[in-house]
Amino acid sequence: MKRIAILSALPALLLISACSQEPARSTADEAKPVAEVTVSNAWCRPSPNGAQAGACYVTLISEANDKLMGGKTPRASELQVHEMKTENGVMKMNQIMTGMDLKQGQAVMLAPGGAHLMLIGLTAPLVAGETVPLTLEFAAAPAVTVEATVGQRPSINDGHGAH
After folding, report:
1. Are 119 and 159 in contact (CB under 8 A)?
2. Sign of CA dihedral 59, 67, 95, 113
3. Other C-beta atoms within 10 Å of 80: how many?
4. What pLDDT, on a 0 to 100 scale, did the predictor assign at position 29?
5. CB 114: neighbour CB atoms within 10 A?
6. What's the whole-model pTM score?
7. What averages of pLDDT result for each successive group of 10 residues across the chain (163 residues)?
């Protein structure tokens, strides 16, 4: 009789024991660190009164292959990634709809005459000396918010000296 009582209690004891243990974790279950994008040299051109759009520029370095998808700012209804291209001798500007490629470890400079951030639907002119918050969004990396200075292009030490 004792043997039957012990055997019938065994499933309940195993269930209690299983419930009190933490689940086993494998290294595959642990969260992988997310690659980040470093944003530097953020600046915007001053915009004339009444302008509905403005341009901003940054330098990006991603820890992994990624894409700059766009972003947002309280200073405009939209923040888009644009590129300038010459087609048949005519300079044209287009939105990069599929995102701008960022290669792991390579600096990508958004600069006048090339890729840039386009602020559409400005809430007020961009005035020299003020700062503009820009939140950049990426396909994989977390969003990054920077303060862009409105004014002239900052001097960038690119290591080329007087070249």
Report:
1. no
2. positive
3. 18
4. 45
5. 12
6. 0.74
7. 49 45 49 86 95 97 98 98 90 94 98 96 96 98 98 62 37
Per-residue tokens: 36 = 């980040």
Q: What is the pLDDT of residue 40?
A: 97
Burial of 73 (0-12, 13-18, 19+ CB in 10 A): buried
Closest CA to 132 of 115, 110, 113, 117: 117
Q: How far is CA 86 from CA 68, 90, 91, 99, in A?
A: 22, 5, 4, 20
Are the C-beta atoms of residues 67 and 102 closer than 8 Å to each other?
yes
DSSP labels for 92-137? EEEE-TT-EEE-BT--EE--TTSSEEEEEEESS---TT-EEEEEEE
C-alpha to C-alpha distances, 107 to 60, 65, 70, nearest whole angstrom: 6, 12, 17
